[in-house]
């Protein structure tokens, strides 16, 4: 049975009156809130932004009083202005390697690792901008630095560095041990502070004949020095654990190789060997035939990061496929952008994760077999050249010994008569 009409009208009237009452309450609350500082939930975020200059306790109290509980979580969600960030340890480089003297010296038209160490050639060279600043950063944090050369011995290189224009920018780091020099023409030895210095039989060097594109020279140079790694922890030393950390050689994955280019000289001009064929014999891919590309390949095979210094201007790099980053230079103090130790850290401005040893095709390589193959090929070639040189020397000495006899046989009659006249006077 349908309800009477009067009951329907009464129910409808009651609902209308209730809606009017709720609307009046909302209107009154909004008027009261406008006079008392109440903020509508939809606009609470702007109010919080205006209160940003307050202290932490004042902002928390303001949030509890004016923000609904359902909206509080969205207020403190990660935003561009502030929020939760991932905490990750930043590993500074354990060794900075300057591969080739042109990565640390600016010699103009002079070639890198010039065999001539004359004063005229050295006087035209100067330390590149930013080298002294980067070496100073390495010295402050205890990061060792290496200068590698393939065409000069250590004493020749030291004499050359002491004769450049601003030699004090480099020699001061050589004197205090922040910068060390290694030559592929000399045997690698341990530094006095190395834990294996008193036990040279424990050395694990690849030996001579392993310069670029072979990674053996880089790995031997890294093995010959030592450092104390920095502890893991927060900034300003908070929570850093350093107990029990022993001195050890740097890890290749935390080393950065600086290569300057382009250098179009053949990588193995003096050796007379085929690097590509040697690499193929052990299942590796090496197609670098210039000095700058070969050095990048060596750094990549060693498992280190490669920073290419494009000192001849933008667009002149010849190792875009091999280098991890390409920069026009380290930057001077007046430049907007400079390469600092934090930039080449892991993670840094150019990469995020540590590298792994790879060849030019991105494949893993047996480094022991590769370095042994290069060493055997170059030592065999050097023995052959030495034998041929000795044969030439023997031929020259033999011809020199026979020269007086030939001269006596070709003596003229007048000279013979003069000699006989001198004998008759006796």
Describe this structure in words.
With 426 residues, the protein is α/β, with parallel strands linked by helices. The protein has 13 helices and eight strands. A six-stranded parallel sheet has the order 5-4-1-6-7-8, sandwiched between helices. A two-stranded antiparallel ribbon has the order 2-3.
Architecture blueprint of SSEs:
Layout: H1 5-36, H2 44-50, H3 56-66, H4 69-75, E1 95-99, E2 105-106, H5 119-123, E3 126-127, H6 131-141, E4 145-149, H7 154-161, H8 168-175, E5 179-183, H9 216-223, E6 255-261, H10 275-281, H11 291-302, E7 305-310, E8 325-327, H12 367-409, H13 413-425
Parallel strand pairs: 1-4, 1-6, 4-5, 6-7, 7-8
Antiparallel strand pairs: 2-3
Helix pairs in contact: 10-12
Describe this structure in a few short sentences.
This protein is an alpha/beta fold and 426 residues long.
| Largest β-sheet summary | 6 strands, parallel
Q: DSSP helix count? A: 13
Please give the number of β-strands.
8
Principal-axis shape equals elongated
What percentage of the residues does DSSP assign to strands (E)? 5-15%
Write down the secondary-structure element order.
HHHHEEHEHEHHEHEHHEEHH
- Radius of gyration using CA atoms only: 38 Å
Helix content: 40-55%
Which regions are unreliable across 5 or more consecutive residues at pLDDT < 50?
A: 5-16, 35-52, 68-82, 114-120, 395-409
Average pLDDT over all residues? 76
Query: What is the straight-line distance between the termini?
Result: 175 Å
Sheet/helix structural class: alpha/beta
Main sheet: which strands, in order across? 5-4-1-6-7-8
């Amino acid at each position: 049975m349908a309800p009477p009409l009067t009951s329907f009208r009464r129910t409808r009237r009651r609902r209308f009156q209730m809606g009017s009452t709720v609307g009046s309450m909302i209107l009154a609350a909004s008027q009261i809130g406008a006079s008392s500082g109440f903020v509508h939930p939809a606009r609470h975020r702007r109010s919080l932004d205006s209160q940003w200059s307050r202290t932490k306790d004042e902002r928390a109290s303001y949030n509890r009083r004016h923000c609904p509980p359902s909206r509080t979580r969205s207020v403190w969600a990660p935003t561009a202005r502030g929020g939760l960030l991932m905490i990750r340890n930043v590993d500074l480089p354990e060794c900075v390697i300057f591969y080739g003297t042109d990565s640390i010296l600016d010699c103009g038209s002079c070639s890198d690792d010039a065999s001539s160490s004359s004063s005229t050639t050295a006087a035209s060279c100067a330390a590149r901008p930013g080298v002294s600043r980067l070496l100073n950063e390495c010295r402050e944090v205890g990061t060792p630095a290496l200068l590698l050369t393939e065409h000069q011995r250590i004493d020749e290189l030291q004499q050359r560095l002491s004769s450049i224009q601003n030699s004090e920018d480099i020699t001061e780091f050589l004197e205090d041990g922040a910068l060390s020099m290694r030559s592929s023409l000399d045997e690698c030895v341990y530094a006095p502070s190395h834990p294996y210095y008193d036990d040279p039989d424990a050395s694990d060097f690849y030996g001579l004949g392993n310069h670029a594109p072979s990674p053996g020279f880089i790995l031997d140079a890294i093995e010959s020095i030592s450092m104390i790694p920095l502890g893991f922890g927060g900034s300003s030393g908070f929570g850093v654990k350093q107990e029990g950390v022993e001195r050890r050689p740097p890890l290749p994955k935390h080393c950065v190789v600086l290569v300057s280019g382009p250098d179009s000289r053949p990588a193995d001009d003096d050796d007379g060997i085929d690097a590509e064929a040697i690499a193929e014999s052990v299942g590796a891919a090496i197609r670098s035939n210039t000095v700058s590309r070969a050095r990048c390949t060596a750094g990549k095979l060693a498992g280190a990061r490669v920073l290419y210094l494009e000192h001849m201007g933008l667009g002149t790099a010849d190792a875009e496929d091999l280098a991890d980053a390409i920069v026009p230079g380290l930057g001077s103090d007046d430049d907007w952008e400079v390469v600092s130790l934090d930039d080449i850290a892991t993670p840094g401005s150019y990469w995020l994760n540590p590298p792994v040893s790879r060849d030019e095709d991105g494949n893993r390589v047996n480094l022991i077999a590769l370095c042994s193959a290069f060493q055997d090929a170059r030592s065999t070639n050097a023995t052959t050249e030495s034998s041929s040189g000795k044969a030439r020397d023997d031929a020259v000495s033999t011809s020199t010994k026979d020269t007086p006899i030939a001269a006596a046989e070709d003596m003229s009659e007048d000279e013979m008569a003069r000699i006989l006249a001198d004998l008759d006077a006796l």
